[in-house]
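Field reference: "sequence" (input) and "structure" (output). Example, DUF2338 domain-containing protein:
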Amino acid sequence: MNKLHETAPLGNVLIVGAGPAGIHVAVDLSKGWCCRLGLTNRKGIHAERLQQELDQYSFQLCTEVLVERAKHLSATARLDQFYAGFDTIEDDWHTIVLCVPSHSYVEVIRELKLDQRIQLERIILISPGIGSNILVKESLGQSRDLIEVISFSTYYAATKFPPAASTLLKSIVKGLKRKIYIGSSQANSSMLFILQDYMSSLGIEAERTSHPIEAESRSITTYVHPPLFLNSFSLQEIFSLTRSSKYMYKLYPEGPITPDAIRSMVRLWKEISSILVKFGAEPVNLLKFMNDDNYPVQEQTLSRLDIEGFVQFEDIHQEYLLYIRYASLLIDPFSIPDEQGQYRPFAAVPYQQVSRDQAGRWVIPRVPYEDYRRLKLLYLVGQAFHLPMPQAKTLIVNFEKHLGKFMEEQGTEAFLPDLINDSTWDEAEVIIREMQTINLKDREDVFKS
């Protein structure tokens, strides 16, 4: 370990992606985990405005944590370097943290020319999908064995810019995970222990996994978002040009949750589980994962026997328990009722709808566009191995139908190129080749139960 790393375990850190997550992660890492701190974003109006604000406010970033147990984590940080665009980035960064949508990883890595950066030691994927680590490694070309790639199971917070994006230098932290999973492309990685300490400093447990696929499969959105937000009820709200009055996690008619949506969730979970088995990974107990690692409910609602035995139950029993779980989370089951006996609302999360960016192009919200891209990638991988995934196909086709109709109405010239030039099949081929050449079950360090 050189002198630079003795004082800061991640060395010089460059954050890629200057959204609310990127600002938040930058501030968190500034607390003794890095030496120099850099931030970059693709060229455009967002980057130009950010550069102007940074110049005006001496490169100061800040976070405001609204989570009661973690308000002490609110902080400020001084950025050492900002790059508007990727073409002027020097080769003096030891750690790169990708805070961009997972479907753009490959394109970003190519633009950053990471395979040519001699100083680079590791890449951290903050919000990957299943297979992202494989895709990133393969995108590194001849440097794939020299650069460690680490996958988080999911971004460890929920963040946003201040109302009306009054500043791009502040990230408001609305929520923090209690637990995430982390996995490395390198067996017996010492960096995972450092990242465990990093997460612990934020009050978050990080469990090491034996392989990145196992970490990547521990994101609840993989199983929940497609059935809830790629159905027609949700897509009509998302693609509507009038303000939605519905909510993402409420029961029908206030939201998308119906017995059919829950049935879709159970079927999709089993289809994705079949792919994980093909990878050599252990599938999740969906109800246990929802309750123990995400949002719990009272034991009077779902008993420990219900939760632990979920995988063995019949389909209809599983659907029944999941419906109970969502009905129980319409309110925060652990909140203290007010004088009128009302508990804190929990499920009233409004839909993000289509909008125009500063250049006038239509933007499809990350929920559900990123979920669609991730699911399509898994579906194509499953097809190559003859795994039946009819539920995934139904959801994919439904999204493409609604998107196609909207694009036809608005004109394709008003949309970003990645909505038209889909690279999902190219990415699937990379994962398929890797699965065909490496049997993960043959590695002694992988997926010990």
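Residues 440-449 have pLDDT under 50 and may be disordered.
The CA atoms of residues 323 and 402 lie 26 Å apart.
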